[in-house]
Every structure is written in structure tokens, then in C-alpha cells.
Amino acid sequence: MAVVIGTNAGFVETAPSSDPTGSDTTADESARASRDTSPATAVRITEMGVYISNATEAAQIELGFYDHDAVYDLPKDLIEKTEIAKGTTEGWKIDVGLNWTISSSTIYWVATQCDNTATTTELDYGINVGYRQAYRTIAGLTALPNPWIDTLEGNNLSYAVYAVWEAGEPPPGINTKINIGDAWKEISAMKINIGDTWKAVSAAKINIGDTWKTIF
After folding, report:
1. Helix (H, G, I), strand (E, B) or coil at 23
2. Cα 55 to Cα 15, 91, 124, distances in angstroms
3. What is the rounded CA–CA span in Å between residue 73 and residue 59?
4. What are the φ and ψ backbone dihedral angles of 168, each rounded to 5 degrees?
5. Can you tell me the distance from the alpha carbon of 43 to that of 65, in angstroms, rounded to the nearest whole number?
6. What is the four-CA torsion angle of 32, 127, 99, 104, rounded to 10 degrees?
7. CA 184 to CA 186: how far, in whole Å?
8. Which residue segments constitute the domains of the chain, with CATH numbers given?
9. Alpha carbons 105 and 108: distance in angstroms, whole number
10. pLDDT digits (tens, 9 = 90+) for 141-188
11. What's the predicted TM-score (pTM) here?
């Protein structure tokens, strides 16, 4: 196993349960965020989690997500956050039952912050080519900063911090579009020719990760 965007980091469809077995970095008194793009049908976040890779003293953890600063390629404003107890054991620290609205196909930063512990608390990170992380360790830090702070950053790395996303209900009828004269036009119906007769297509699906997903 490793820290992989879409599996146990960034936006995921199913919450991970196993140890990511990534490299370790300091979590306490730190704010850490990973960049990812929300899926094309995503409309909400229902759960967030972070993998704490060692047993330390009890503390509070914050989980949240930021919008994207396109100029500096960094987190910008904190959109939502939640606070949970870290406990004293290694493992996934999660908050379920969230109902945070997001936009589809949009860059966000999923983030975490952990309060100070006498023993250094650590979280996992790993290589994800094309992705990016931002972080800052500040003595006495007790919350995710808003807006984001002066930061250190690195390319091709991600933290084991995830957000479970859900898709919205598709609009009734065909919702496919075509570009005509540099303007997107909605296709009101899709048809296929069978036996020299045009038949309306009532549904279409696509296979993603060996699972069939409804297009319309």
C-alpha cells in the first residue's frame, strides 16, 4: 500500500481502512494540505480523515478544505472545517456525516492540523506525480489558518488526508452537450440507428474502476 490520490488521499469515493504505509512527517503544531481536483460529478463531501502513524498523547485534530490560489498554486481561503479528538492510538482519524457543498471539476486543497503533543505526532505522506502539498509548522498552532499562511510547499507529494465525495442527481433527460460555433448546446435526445431505423437512447453508462456509472 502507499499514499495514493483517489484511494487514501485527496478525493475518494470510498473511505480507506488500511495503513497507507507512507513516509512519516510531523503532524502536531502543523497545518498540512494536499491539492486535488474534485470529480466531474461531485457535489458534496460526506467524510474526511487523516492517518496518524504513531501512538501519542491525546489532542485535537482539525480537518477541512481550502479553495485554490491559482497565482501561487497554494491553498487560499478555508471553506469548511471540523474538529475531532485524535485519541492516543495509531490509525485513521475520521469525521463522518458531513454535508459540505463543493463544485465539480474544481481544484481544492484537503487539509489537516493537529494540536501539540509531548511526543511528536506523525502522519503519512507519499509520492503522487503531478500533485502538490503545502505545509507550515508553527509553535502553538491550534487551528487551520484562514486564510492560508506563508508556507512551504513541495511538488509530486500528497498527505494521507482524504475527503469522501458524493455525486449529485443527474438532471432529467439527456444532459449531453456539443460545441457549435464556440457555444455549448444541449442535446435533447441521443439516437442510434438499428435496422435502418433511428431509436432513442434512454440511458448511457461508463465503466470506471470496474464499476458501471450512469451518465444519464
Report:
1. strand
2. 21, 9, 13
3. 30
4. -90, 170
5. 14
6. 120
7. 7
8. 10-167 (2.60.120), 177-214 (no CATH)
9. 10
10. 999 999 998 778 889 999 999 999 999 865 555 566 676 766 666 666
11. 0.77
Instruction: For residues 201 and 192, give the distance between their C-alpha atoms in angstroms, rounded to a whole number.
Output: 7
For 175-200, the pLDDT digits (tens) are: 666 767 666 666 666 678 787 777 77
Q: Quick one: residue 79, left, alpha or beta (phi over 0 = left, psi -120 to 50 = alpha)? A: alpha
Residue 98 and residue 100: Cα distance in Å, rounded? Answer: 6
The neighbour count for residue 97, using CB atoms within 10 Å, is 7
Whether omega before 171 lies within 30 degrees of 0, making that bond cis, reads no
Cell numbers that stand for 12 in this block: 475518494
Q: What is the full DSSP assignment across 99-113?
A: EEE--TT-EEEEEEE
